Amino acid sequence: MTNEKQTKKLDSLLEENEKLYRLTIDSIGSMLHVIDKNFSILIFNKGFVRWNKSLKLETNAQSKNLFTVFPFLSAKTRKEYQTVFETAKPLLTEETHQINGKVITTETKKIPIIESNKVCKIVTIVNNITERKKQVEELKKHRENLEMLVTEQTNQLVATECLAATGKFASTLSNEINNPLQAIITHLEILKKNMPKREKTLESFAFVQENIYKIKHIVQHLSSLGISAQLKKTKINLHSTILKIIDLLKPQMENLHILLEFNCPNKNIFLTGIPKQIKQIVLNLILNAIDNTPTAGKIVLTTIKEKDSIKLLIKDNGRGIKKKDIPRIFEPFFTTKEEPGMGLGLFICQGLVRNHNGSIEVRSKINKGTTFVLTLPISQQHQTIKDNDTIF
After folding, report:
1. Domains within the chain, CATH numbers bracketed
2. What is the predicted pLDDT for the residue at 64?
3. Which of 79, 125, 167, 335 has the greatest count of CB atoms below 10 A from its CB?
């Protein structure tokens, strides 16, 4: 009788332990299963059943082969299990699988169960980290975009400060250079009247005079960087401004047989800016297109109105700009022209555009042509540039 009672007590204890064990593994939210050396599934929890149901896989997996229940598992996974059996060391892996049309990323931990100093079974715990992986990737992209934006803004700030310093320096220096230059020009004119009319002498004189005027023009361009007068931003009709510039350049284009096409669907596009500077921006960009367009070539101007901005596209069918030169075209004194100029037009242009919170993009293909995309905000508050500020 005593033995019978003890047996019942042991059975009850075993039943309780079985319940506790089952409750324990079922309370684990992750998918869990245990396999033997033949890859037969010995035990699995409710998380396993939920997982398989959601992916339309076999739920009655008792004693079935792991690779039959999960046919998408690779030879690499089989090798990983064999490694755990051989080394008795846990293994953590991350895998991405295509399961019945769904892409699932998992984090899998394989834990050895050791009996008599040998691995007899392996517990596998699998977590679906697909959403977490997406969030990590999104955060990574946001971080990269933020870093790119910070770098871009920092570079722009540095460039703006450099331009401002250049403007202030040039404005001060121009007065010091202009005065002696004007004296040289005046005395050259006097010398010209009194000098012998010899051909070689006249050629030398013309060469000197030409280069002096070139220096004068460089100083004038540089001095424009340091404008410090009170400049008020007013309402400007971009269509009207472009038409006036086209009329101004018409004789030059006719002489070169360059055809200019102007497409402006909306003639009542207004922006807020400094009229003289807006005119100089557009003029410089069109002049640049003329310089790069062959005789009998074509330039197309197109305006595109967007929600908060207006784009002006200046497209030519000229020789194009080399890819390696594009990052440098806005540098002072850099030029790609066959007949070297001062290389200040685009440099000044970029500074004026930044003053109006705009931007310039360049697209170019060798022997196909170049397109400059000028973007300016349509609506800005009227602003006054202070006396101690430059136009940048």
Report:
1. 13-132 (3.30.450.20), 142-226 (1.10.287), 229-392 (3.30.565.10)
2. 93
3. 167
